[in-house]
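[Backbone geometry]
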Amino acid sequence: MSFKETVNYIEDFLNKDYSFYYIDNYKMHDKLCYCKDKMLSDVKTGIEKESNNIDYFEEIVQDVKKILDFFTQSIILNKRDDSFNKFINDFLLLIFNWNKIVNDDEIQQKISINKELLNYHDSMIVTVKVLQELLQEYEKIKHFSPPSFEISRHYLESLEKRLEEE
């Protein structure tokens, strides 16, 4: 996915009304919009200057850390669908690219934590689906008992009795 597609998805998501379903705090929504604009400006300036020496304010660094904490909380506590997961992934990518300019270790660590939580969640969803399928298959064969099973069972029981007698 290109940088432009990533940014377009972030902007589209934040401009839709359903974004408030996931981001129910208006201040956080405004913070996401503000930081997105500021980070885009910084990244574009960095690309144009071909330099990582961009002036930034510590306030935006703190806001980005709050956004990352919000993402962590959302991943752990809230129900999400694919559109919100994609939004989080795309926003994390934007923060990652912006952090190349800022070079803040705590931000990098929080990005990694969020990515790992998303990956863990995805693997758990797959595991649940596989277990549901296995359960359905088990229910289908649970009562299946062909005659050969009965004969084998009877044979095993007779062997067991003989062993007990000896």
About this structure: The chain has seven helices and no strands.
